Amino acid sequence: MIKSIRKILIWFLVGLVAALAIFSITLGGVIRSEIERESTLAMGVNTAIESINVNLFTGHLRINNFIISNPPTFSTPHLLKVSQLQVETPPWNLFSNVVQLHKFAIGQLSFNIEQNRLNNNLLVVVKNLQENKQKQEAQPDDRAEKRFQADLVTVDRVETIVKATIFDQVLADQTLAVNDLRFEGLTSENAAGVLLPELLRKVLLESIAATIDPEKINVPIELPDIIRNL
Predict the structure, then answer these.
(1) Is the dihedral of CA 200, 204, 205, 206 positive or negative?
(2) CA–CA separation, 112 and 35 (whole Å)
(3) Burial of 18 per CB tally in 10 Å (0-12, 13-18, 19+)
C-alpha cells in the first residue's frame, strides 16, 4: 500500500514538473509575442526577439537579442539591439497581481544613431513614441494583465555608434560607450505596476537618454529630456 502511494506521488511529481516545463515554454512564447507586438505598435518600426527562456522553478526570465529595426531609408543594421536581458523574482511572486522584480539587468545595449540627408532615425522613432503616448493618454490601458515593478535596473554597457550619411556615403562615424548604468524608481510613480513591454520601453529610453550627449552628437539639445518624458 505504502509503495503504491509512493509510486503515485512520484508519478504525480514527474507529471507536475513536465507540466510546468511545458507551461514555461508556452509562457515564453506569449511574453515574446506581447513584447514584439507592443513595441512595434509604440515605435512604428519592426521589433523582434531571437529567443526567450523562462524558468518558473527559479522565477528567472532571459531575453536574447531583442532588436529594434530602423525606419525606412536608413542603412545601419538596426536602431537598437539588446544582447541579453535577465529578470528574476522569487517564484511565488509570479502569482501576485503586481510582480516585484528583484533583478532587471541588461548585458550590452548597442545603439545606432544615423543621420541621412532626409532625417534622423532616432528622431523618427521618438516622434512615433510621442504620437503613441498621446493615443494611450486618450485611451487609458485598463487590461487585466500581470504588471511589474522594478526598484533597480542595471545596464552593463551601452555602445552608441553615430553615423552621418548622404547617398550611402559615410561622412562621419564615431563610437561612444558608457558602462555600469543604474536606474532606480522607474516604476515608483505607479503603485499598480506596468506591463512588461512598458517597463522594457522605460528602461531602453532611460539608457538612450543617459548616453546621448548633444555636445558630442548632432542632435537637439533637449532630446534627452524629451526621451525621458516619453
Answers:
(1) positive
(2) 21
(3) exposed
Query: Is the CB of residue 161 less than 8 Å from the CB of residue 107?
Result: no
Q: Mind listing the pLDDT tens digit for each residue in 19-28?
A: 444 445 566 7
Q: Which amino acid is at 154?
A: T
Per the document, the length of the chain is 230
Residue whose C-alpha cell reads 544613431 in the numeric block: 113
- Tell me which H or E stretch contains 174: strand 169-184
Query: Which segment of 81-90, 154-163, 188-197 scores lowest on mean pLDDT?
Result: 188-197
Helix ranges, 44-104 (H): none
pLDDT band at 81 (very low <50, low <70, confident <90, very high): very high
Q: Are 227 and 208 in contact (CB under 8 A)?
A: yes
Q: What are phi and psi of 23, to 5 degrees?
A: -65, -35
